[in-house]
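Q: What would this complex look like in 3D?
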Amino acid sequence: MLSPSLASAGRRSSLEPAVLVEGLTVKYPGRKCPALEEVSFSIQPGELALVLGPSGCGKSTLALCLNGVIPQAIGAMMDGQVRVAGLDTRHAPLNRLSEKVGVVFQDPESQFCLLTVEEEIAFGLENLGIPPGEMPGRIAAALELVGLSELRDRRIDRLSGGQKQRLALACVLAMEPQVLVLDEPTAHLDPQAAAEFFSAVAHLKATGQHTIIVIEHRLDDLMPLVDRVLLFGPGGRLLAEGPPRAVFATYRQDLDRSGIWIPQVTELAYRLAEAGVEIDPLPLTVEEAAEALEPYLGRVCLRWPPIVDPPERQPATEVRRLSYRFPSGFQALREVSLAIPEGSFFALVGPNGAGKSTLALHLVGVLEPPPGAVRLLGRPLGAYTRQGLPHLVSYVFQNPEHQFLTGTVYDEVAFGLRVQGLAEREVEARVSAILEEFGLASLAPAHPFTLSQGEKRRLSVATALVLRPRLLILDEPTFGQDRRTTALIMGRLRELVRGGGTVVAITHDLRLVAEEASAAGVLVAGQLAFLGPVAALLGSTSLLRRAGLVPPPLVRLGQRLAEQRDGLPLLSTIEHYLAALGAGR
Amino acid sequence: MSQGIYMETSSYLHRLNPVTKFVLVIPTTLILTLVVDIAVPALFSLFFLLALLVLGRIPPSRLARALLPFLPAGIGLLWTTAAFYQTRMAEAPAVALDLGPLQLTRAGIIYAVSIVLRVLAIYTSSLLFLLTTHPTDFILALVQQCRLPVRLGYGVMAAYRFVPLLSTELAQIRAAHRVRGVPEGGGALAAPRRLLGYAIPLLASGIRRAQQVAVAMDARALGAQRRRTFYRHLRFSGSDLAFLLAYAVFAVVVLSLLVWMGLPARLDPFGGPAMRR
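A: Here is my prediction, written as structure tokens for the whole assembly.
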């Protein structure tokens, strides 16, 4: 790290880092604890730095400090200094700063205000007072960089989420900044769109003209680009700074404790090391892991854990030739038929708008299926009363806030039990137990809307699980969750399944599918394109592509290993690798 | 649904400055409140409808659909105005339609028709604006031509994008509440309470989005420069002048015809002839 005296000692123009942060402390009015505390680091021109940290550690606050929005537009107390491309963010005019620093935010729906792609890019240039004659050239160049040249005249509301995020990137690129800050840019994107976004970032990095700071949870595609990692701890303090391999090798405990996602192959290496298979150097990408595992291929265990056929069970839910057309005329489902056996974990995947939620809403009767098209636990759905269904089925929506009904966390969990008419003593016992288990006990009197995103998700899952449903449907259960929350929720779902319950997860998260699900269905444009065991889905790259998915890192690694060693089945989860490398018991 | 009833196409009217089309509503309303007559509002309505069909390239079916909401309002207005019409004339008015307890007078019916036609003329003049102007363009024109503060103008546009999102979100919230066993129907208090339950999550996400947009706009230097430039400058062009002139000529011709033929004297239902006596 540069010492302050060195940074200010002449030779500034050539040696000054692109970003220099010294003793940065930020405190929002009305908050007891600062959002960032005594943060110092510097980033050299052309570097790509990855910012990691638990949720609520001040990562987004840092992004706003870098372009001067804090303290100039948002009132927050700020100590220390931030210099970006030689400008002090406290004093430099915001328009000059936004020529130096561009920020892309996470929500594709709330970054735009105009109608068309072209006009939206022009908006930033207009704000800077760029002469109109210069604009078309700059717009074209920015679109070229992110691969959207064809969509110049397209209306923004007709773009996909991934295209919107690349547009947001183009909008800041047109302002020709030296520093780019990407604040969880792929949080709302499906895996394919995220991969496209990262490839645009890779392209930018290759031009060498930008210093890039990325706040991200999805690391697998990003790791090859990362030069440095800034690891934040709870309370907005900088825990570590350095090359990614060193940080991941040294700070495993902090990463685990804070529930921060790490590259999947790195996690695999951690687990293998625990089991006595030491891999050095620590792999960060699939390529590195494939190389590192090659020497072990000779001793892999080919006696693959026998797949035990699950005992024949009656279907928890059964759909027969279900079609559905929205009142708008949009055909959401076409002749879908499937059966999901009791006591199984089923994954429903497919691109956005393929009809996954529409199908799931039919399973629980929120959308009324035609008579006989959907059966629940052996009886036609129509045979159940509206009061009876909530005893048997629960549904966890993607946005937890949508399903909150009461004013406290406690009442929220108790609501369903009370609807069922349970005695208050029983209600209390069950609610307290599950709040304890989900780490929400201390928040029992709080209003659900005041919780953090992770807490809201845990609460919404708890409200469903407390009912002990026979069929539980979850829409993107891992969306935006840290590693710890995800592990907690998955553990509980596994228990539910072991107890004979049935789980249907709508998801883009193939890691979740690989680790938890036994069978999967792929919906494409309202039609069932695949129905079968998960291993068959993961093995088919073309099928995954049609579903808007990309093979997760461990599957890609497994494919490469299988090419090198005959007879090796496709390894797709950490447990598989432990078993195959003889590290498991 | 984010654009109201705007119809996307390319036409002479679409290319006019939004302010031009918006401004026309004002003299039209003024003239029609001052002149009580059947021919004048009928001619004005015809003017706007023809302009929409020919200069605005709005298909007749689309135009008919846009006029549809006027039908129930128009019939209701016609009926109540005719039924409750009170004459100030001394002699008993001529009864045109005898419905027992209710008698519709000839003057009453004429007056009612003129009222409905006036409203129709104002309605069609608004259609000329609404069908051919994208809301975003209107706000842009207000910023560029009428000096609407930049932050306010672009703020409104950003908020406007959220309208379709709101309805999607509302549908999701209703489904979520239903799954959790919130009773549908119920007593008189159930419906308002349910609506409140929908409003809280909608407000929460609305406020969050508004904050995010505000920060995103700040980050792109909105309002940081005193002089902003415009990529797409909405100017007043010759076409605007031509259209305004055509409108003025039409209005003057119609009004002078009216005076020349002495029409107001004959049709003024407030009993003009009686007072002149």
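A: To summarize the key features: Chain A has three domains: 4-258, 263-299+556-585, 315-551. The first helix of chain A runs from residue 4 to 8.
Q: Very helpful, thank you.
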